[in-house]
């Protein structure tokens, strides 16, 4: 397994832990719904990233790009929301929407690569 794949798997574990911690903080420390949203996005993408990394074996080297996009998008989106809850503002005002767009594009890229791999197997 490549170093990139191993790094993405390690990030998935970190995002999962951060998502659980964020959910606990949201439940016990603040009622701000942004913390729950950020935690949910971290945990969902933490669960998805290993699957995308595993699928990259069938998709070729490009298969890791969607997983990297999920990692970056989740970091920007969730990180921005969590910083806003903690500090009331964010140093990167467009981080959450940018992260959201990266997440959407990463899922579309994963779908496109999966379709391409399936068509390649048929032909």
Tell the overall outline.
Answer: elongated
Helix % is over 70%
How many helices?
Answer: 4
Mean pLDDT: 92
Fraction of residues in β-strands = under 5%
Q: Profile the largest sheet.
A: none
Cα gyration radius (Å): 16 Å
In terms of structural class, how would the helical and strand content be classed? mainly alpha
Strands, total number = 0
Q: In sequence order, what are the helices and strands, one letter per element? A: HHHH
- The count of domains is 1
Runs in which pLDDT lies below 50 for 5 or more consecutive residues are: none
End-to-end C-alpha gap? 27 Å
Describe the structure.
This protein is mostly helical. The chain has one domain. It has four helices and no strands. The longest helix has 28 residues, at 95-122. The model has no long low-confidence stretch (mean pLDDT 92).
Fill in the keyword field for this structure.
123 residues, mainly alpha, 4 helices, 85% helix, elongated
Topology of helices and strands:
Layout: H1 3-28, H2 33-59, H3 64-87, H4 95-122
Helix pairs in contact: 1-2, 1-3, 2-3, 2-4, 3-4
Short synopsis of the structure:
With 123 residues, this protein is mostly helical. The chain is built from 4 helices and no strands.
